[in-house]
Design brief:
mainly alpha, 9 helices, about 210 residues
Length: about 210
């Protein structure tokens, strides 16, 4: 498992490096948009590498931070509308196949009605969660203008923080991958336990049949 994760991170790193090296700020925006559209392309690689390029004079901290945050907004809008257009009817129809119950949807609606805007802001600074928060925001039909503003404001400190780490580490920025690799394992284990509990708690109770 560890070697597989390392191989995937290496491939993603090469893609990020080539894209940003070729397209500059547009490459930062593009790769951050991909991550925020719920495609696993870690900002923990994108922004530190961009921060390293600040030390070479290719970028500025303001530029990479804004490019990262704007890319975050672009990708988040895609995920948001996936939630809006797919919507609750789609999830209600196909959700049971993925063990998503109507009760889960009711809870999500109430949660976003009460905490949605704050959740969109603060989750942008949390690994893993930040990538997927746009989907339930879209399903809950959070006000679009506020969604964009909160997404942008929440993404700014996250992008700046990661770029700053890359700036300070300079050419050693790639050593960050070792730390993120360990962190990914911890997150993966946590998600595995959470998924196990979710399956156990949502698995439909089957009526007993003769001979079972």
């Amino acid at each position: 498992m560890g070697q597989l994760i390392e191989a995937i991170i290496t491939v993603l790193s090469r893609f990020v490096i080539n894209t940003i090296s070729t397209f500059g700020y547009t490459g930062i925006l593009l790769t951050m948009a991909i991550e925020s559209a719920c495609i696993p392309l870690p900002s923990e690689i994108i922004m530190p590498f961009s921060g390293y390029l600040v030390t070479t004079g290719q970028f500025t901290m303001l530029g990479v931070t804004l490019a990262g945050a704007i890319g975050n907004v672009v990708g988040s809008i895609v995920a948001y509308y996936a939630g809006v257009w797919g919507g609750r009817p789609f999830v209600e129809r196909y959700g049971p196949y993925f063990l998503i119950s109507h009760k889960d949807l009711d809870t999500a609606d109430r949660w976003f009605a009460r905490y949605g805007e704050a959740a969109v802001f603060f989750s942008r600074m949390l690994p893993v969660v930040r990538t997927f928060i746009s989907l339930p925001a879209g399903v809950a039909r959070m006000n679009f203008s506020r969604f964009v503003v909160f997404t942008f404001l929440g993404a700014l400190p996250w992008c700046y923080f990661l770029a700053y780490i890359g700036l300070k580490m300079g050419e050693e920025w790639e050593h960050l991958r070792d730390y993120f690799h360990q962190f990914d394992i911890v997150i993966g284990l946590g998600l595995a336990f959470a998924a196990g509990y979710f399956l156990w708690s949502h698995w439909p109770r089957r009526a007993a049949t003769p001979g079972s």
